[in-house]
Amino acid sequence: MSLKNACDRLRIQSGRSPSRAFTLVELLVVIGIIALLISILLPSLAKAREQGIRTKCLNNTKQLAYAFQVYLNENRQCVPAVNWGNGDCGGKVIAGWLYQCNENLGSPLTPAALEKGVFYPILRSHEIFRCPTHSPDLVLGKTDSVTSYLMNGAMNGYGKQKLYKINQFKSTDALIWEADERPFNGVPPFNDGSSYPWETFDPNTPQAAGLAVRHGKYATIAFVGGHAELVPHDEIYRRAADTGRNWLWCAPAPDSPNGH
After folding, report:
1. From CA 223, how far away is CA 233, in angstroms rounded?
2. Is residue 25 part of a domain?
3. Distance between CA 193 and CA 100 in Å, rounded?
4. What is the count of structural domains for the chain?
5. Which of 70-79, 119-128, 208-217 has the lowest mean pLDDT?
6. CA distance 195 to 63
7. Integer Cα distance of 181 and 178 in angstroms
8. Beta strands in 94-227 (DSSP E)
9. Which of 18, 97, 186, 254 would you label with 1, given CA atoms 20 to 30 Å apart?
């Protein structure tokens, strides 16, 4: 290549226009596209997060059902005290599933009180006793400071101070459910460690039948057989309204011929 041609090529290259920057309009278009993508993805991310929380809460109830099974195996298949106030121990100072029966219920339970219950030494975790979305700021009762769950009072005959054998129940009977943290008529639902299936039921607020609304229209329930499910509120309401025995109203006969 001659010196003249080389100089001509260099002149042509040096005359090229510099790289063009984004205009304001183009930048706004890019920002708009990003915002649109975020608006599309956020509901999916929120749904995935909620599904993760449901799964965690469901796993909590499974772990509580596991602790129940371990307790049965270590105690001649006798059901633990459900902590129906302090009156489910037959006059004895024994530990219930959540706390020791002589525990002072004049104020919210502490983690130390939780550790005196029969389930904690098996599980060795405070977190298992609470739903991840049950905020400590919502503590209104005496036991929701340490738990989001209540045991079915049927396990002790709804205050009859009975420590039944597990073979008096069906594997499909409800053992523990995620209870409603909201008060009814000013009365906090978490006044102890157990309840009736219809406790805190308000006919003017259909979703308030003793069930949490943290997971929408579903509540986590653990069963005597050791499994746990997310059960629709409507199904639970129907069972709670039954006058006969079902998997919610399951107190053993002859103390309770109809399970109530």
Report:
1. 16
2. no
3. 11
4. 1
5. 208-217
6. 20
7. 9
8. 149-152, 174-178, 194-195, 218-223
9. 18
